[in-house]
Amino acid sequence: MLSLPPSARIYICHQAVDMRKSFDGLAATSSQLLAQSPASGHFFVFLNARRTLIKILNWDGDGYTIWSKRLEQGQFNLPKAVGDRLLLDLRDLHAMLDGVKPGAYYKRFSQPSHNLMVAS
After folding, report:
1. Residue at 112 is within a domain
2. In angstroms, how far is the first alpha carbon of the chain from the final one?
3. For residues 39 and 57, what is the distance between their CA atoms, to the nearest angstrom?
């Protein structure tokens, strides 16, 4: 499970990326495709064309780190809320990494629904 500092954001690249790229290649991709500085401390998520391999690039203050995961079956499912947005929240990233299908979970609201009738 990944933990992030409060100031970090998670950016996802919607274009398929050549997964032979390593630190420098992914850093250049984050600059070119996401228009973000790779040394910002944010997390950058990249997927291959078949969505069976994911890499996450992060600058941790003194160097880059890459976290990667390859699926033996199936593919990574992008959360419904992503659409054309570049930002993910941590919950969506964890759901994607755990293989949760986008329609299988929803956001709970802290306020109770007022449309429910209570039988007495």
Report:
1. no
2. 45
3. 10
Q: Residue 76: which H helix or E strand, with range?
A: none
Taking only the tens place, the pLDDT of each residue in 20-76 is 999 999 999 999 989 999 999 999 999 999 999 999 999 988 999 999 999 999 999
Please, what is the average pLDDT of the chain? 82
Residue 118 lies in a domain: no
Residue 18 pairs in a beta bridge with: none
109 within some domain: no
- Confidence bin at 83 (pLDDT 50/70/90): low
Which candidate, 72, 57, 62, places its Cα nearest to that of 17? 57
> Total structural domains in the chain?
1
> Is 94 part of a structural domain of the chain?
yes
pTM of the full predicted structure? 0.79
